[in-house]
């Protein structure tokens, strides 16, 4: 979480330094030619990683851990790690190829690259702040269960983590879907015109459809990693990127940048289903009907919260960025209240232990990865 907050702060500083996002709409060359802005973005990202690493040092010292380099390339664990990491390198390469295709397509529309990238930054917020914390908590537990050969415990822990993910990501997706334009509207300043807000907001709205599947997909891949399997995630990821590229090529001519976001959502939705089915076949199930029922009730509550947020947002009247801020405050409060009440009414009781678990993790660890 600390890393994400530093990167977000860098992004906002970048927006201020460029007098609003309009400079990116004019062309990426205006940024490429500015050494100061490039240095700002690079240092901000590096600072986020460094802050995350430094924050772990007190915990390491308290645990009595003393790190020192030991170069033994023939050690069995090192050789095993190198073998497993080969598939991970392929995973990264596939992602970069797909991203390159998407950005080349987006660059065919004026301001397309900036609209997609700004929307994607917003899209990553709930995943980075909440889903990653949950996944980071459960992955070591899954690995311990797998190492002990206790698949029953593995299935139970995976199912609980999946339910927790649904509890936080489903309402976030609903909120982003109905409040995408007000969120982007907070950046409306200088040359960031209303048309820019509309395009970026519509792109964010389409990306919001991918949020539950995106988080479930990455969590499921961690389930494979806990089983010391990096090969299967590579092939699933290759499938996801292939679908993303094909759909992007098909949808972009008609829908523009929003088509790229829809392709992203569809690709991750299909890949999430494939990943979950493969992991279920590998472990003998993933929680069964109880998990499906809990997620279904959370989805119903999320839809109700989205409707409430949309109704309140439509009733707010204020100009420009002020309206965006007022809309987010009022609609966000209404949506959150309705979601909690709906969960209680539907008999979903996982929210309280989830909050307690996240609070305990926050109190016992210095940083979220």
Which secondary structure elements does this structure contain, and how are they paired or packed?
Blueprint lengths: L1 H16 L4 H5 L2 H4 L2 H28 L13 H31 L5 H36 L3 H35 L8 H15 L2 H16 L4 H25 L1 H27 L4 H28 L4 H26 L5 H14 L5
Question: How would you sum up this structure, described in words?
Answer:
With 369 residues, the protein is mostly helical. It folds into 2 domains: 1-65; 85-364, no CATH class. 83% of the residues lie in helices and 0% in strands. The protein is built from 14 helices and no strands. The longest helix has 36 residues, at 112-147. It is globular, with a radius of gyration of 22 Å. The N and C termini lie close together (6 Å).
How far apart are the first and last residues' alpha carbons, in Å? 6 Å
Radius of gyration from the alpha-carbon trace, in angstroms: 22 Å
Shape: globular
Along the chain, the helix and strand elements come as HHHHHHHHHHHHHH
Quaternary? single chain
**Most strands sheet:** none
Strand content: under 5%
């Amino acid at each position: 979480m600390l890393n994400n907050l530093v990167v977000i702060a860098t992004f906002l500083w970048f927006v201020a330094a460029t007098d609003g996002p309009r400079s990116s709409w004019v062309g990426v060359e205006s940024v490429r030619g500015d050494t100061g802005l490039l240095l700002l973005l690079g240092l901000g990202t590096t600072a986020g990683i460094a802050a995350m690493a430094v924050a772990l040092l007190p915990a390491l010292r308290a645990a009595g851990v003393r790190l020192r380099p030991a170069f033994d390339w023939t050690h069995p664990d090192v050789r095993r790690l190198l073998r497993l990491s080969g598939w991970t390198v392929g995973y990264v390469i596939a992602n970069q190829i797909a991203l390159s295709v998407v950005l080349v397509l987006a660059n065919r529309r004026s301001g397309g690259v900036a609209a997609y990238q700004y929307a994607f930054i917003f899209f990553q917020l709930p995943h980075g702040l909440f889903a990653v914390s949950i996944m980071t908590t459960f992955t070591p537990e899954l690995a311990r269960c797998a190492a002990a050969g206790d698949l029953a415990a593995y299935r139970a822990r995976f199912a609980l983590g999946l339910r927790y993910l649904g509890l936080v990501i489903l309402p976030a997706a609903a909120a982003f879907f109905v409040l995408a334009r007000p969120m982007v509207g907070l950046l409306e300043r200088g040359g960031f015109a209303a048309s820019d807000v509309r395009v970026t907001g519509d792109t964010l709205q389409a990306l919001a459809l991918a949020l539950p599947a995106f988080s479930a997909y990455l969590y499921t891949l961690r389930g494979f990693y806990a089983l010391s399997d990096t090969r299967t995630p590579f092939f699933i990821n290759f499938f996801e990127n292939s679908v993303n590229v094909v759909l992007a090529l098909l949808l972009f001519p008609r829908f523009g940048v929003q088509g790229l976001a829809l392709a992203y959502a569809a690709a991750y939705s299909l890949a999430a289903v494939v990943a979950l089915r493969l992991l279920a076949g590998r472990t003998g199930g993933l929680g069964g009907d109880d998990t499906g029922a809990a997620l279904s009730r959370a989805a119903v509550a999320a839809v109700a919260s989205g409707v409430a947020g949309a109704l309140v947002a439509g009733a707010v009247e204020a100009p420009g960025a002020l309206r965006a801020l007022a809309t987010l405050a009022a609609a966000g409060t209404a949506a959150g209240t309705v979601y909690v009440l709906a969960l209680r009414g539907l008999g979903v009781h996982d929210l309280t232990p989830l909050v307690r678990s996240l609070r305990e993790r926050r109190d016992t660890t210095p940083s979220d990865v």
